[in-house]
Specification:
single chain, alpha/beta, Immunoglobulin-like, 3 domains, four-stranded antiparallel sheet
């Protein structure tokens, strides 16, 4: 079992509780780091070392470093390699920023979430998703990467926690089944039904809740490259959260979201139902640096879509800068990367600044 693979429960924890736990942890760590009693000279030296460490920590905390993963494409959508930092301009809230570092990232560890819609509307495409999704994971995951599997219908559930074992991931995909009924209680995820996202007797497809939980409870705890792939028709019904909440959670987690629109559209119209999932999914992906790929119910299109995602995740650039906005107010900052050669940039639309914690 990889070091990062722990048994996570997708229960929402209030932000205040998280801060309290963090403060308690830090207090304990400081207490454990106190030097034992000894000579006054030794105590003075230790005190100076601690002051130096605190000063260094303060300097690091007061520097607003921002990193952005992105792809560069031509007008036909082909990926553009061999770019340098001199090929780009970077703006935050319309103000130019100085690029501090720039690298082409092809082998940086990847943390990946696969989210599968198991509502009744996916009946005709679910088997296809299982087969092609498993092949994609076998193709993309390396020894440095981790992935997990969630499904969502009337509730969201973690089927497989973090692992790099593709056999476990495939088994998790194979366990996924269509659920077209209604929940009698919040049994899928311990804690749900008691916090901000209750699902008791919630009808439909809790897509936005699932994205929020995946970002907040899973990816926000990880570092490096992070992505979420949704296999869904894009229709949400029954989520307690809104799409803006899902987008914010993904942006705070620095997670890229891809949506593979798997839907039998003919089925919608034959049942007298409208279809509006794509427009909302465009909002979700454009805000986070991913994109929507429409595959319908075609096996070959789904395979091609996964191949495209694999290429994009292994052909990213990473650009970093120190924000000229020194306010640690937790506010949203709009990002824009421009190619001097006129290429298309696929990157997240912005980020949330850290919020300065008041010292006690």
């Amino acid at each position: 079992m990889p070091p990062r693979s722990v048994c996570r429960r997708l229960a929402l924890v209030p932000a205040v509780a998280v801060l309290m736990l963090t403060a308690a942890f830090c207090s304990t760590a400081l207490a454990q780091g106190t030097a034992p009693s000894g000579s006054s000279a030794s105590q003075q030296a230790n005190g100076q070392d601690q002051d130096t460490e605190k000063s260094d920590a303060t300097i690091r905390a007061n520097v607003n470093l921002v990193g952005v993963f992105f792809n560069v494409k031509d007008k036909h959508g082909a990926l553009i390699p061999n770019q340098t930092k001199d090929d780009f301009q970077l703006f935050e809230d319309g103000k130019p920023q100085t690029i501090k570092y720039f690298t082409a990232e092809s082998n940086l560890p990847l943390t990946l979430g696969i989210l599968i819609d198991t509502s009744g509307s996916q009946l005709r495409v679910l088997d296809m998703e299982k087969e092609v999704g498993g092949a994609f994971l076998r193709q993309i995951l390396t020894d440095k990467d981790l992935a997990y599997v969630m499904d969502f219908d009337i509730q969201a559930e973690l089927i497989q926690d973090y692992t790099r074992d593709v056999h476990r991931l495939q088994n998790a995909l194979n366990k996924v089944k269509i659920n077209s009924g209604f929940a009698s209680g919040a049994s899928g995820i311990p804690g749900l039904g008691q916090g901000p996202v209750p699902v008791q007797n919630a009808p439909g497809t809790v897509l936005y809740d699932a994205v929020y939980l995946s970002a907040n409870d899973m990816l926000s705890k990880e570092v490096g490259r992070k992505a979420m792939i949704l296999l869904t028709d894009g229709e949400d019904e029954g989520s307690k959260l809104k799409i803006k909440d899902a987008i914010e959670a993904a942006q705070r987690a620095d997670a890229i979201i891809y949506v593979l629109l798997c839907a039998d559209r003919g089925g919608y119209y034959s049942m007298g139902m409208g279809y509006s999932g794509e427009s909302e999914m465009q909002k979700l992906t454009q805000a986070t640096g991913g994109r929507v790929i429409n595959v319908g119910n075609k096996f070959d299109k789904l395979k091609e879509a996964f191949d495209q995602i694999s290429s994009e995740l292994r052909s990213q650039y990473n650009i970093g800068y120190t924000s000229t906005n020194t306010a640690f107010d937790g506010g949203y900052r709009k990002l824009e990367i421009k190619s001097k050669q006129g290429y298309k940039i696929q990157a997240r639309a912005g980020y949330y600044a850290r919020k300065e914690q008041q010292s006690q």
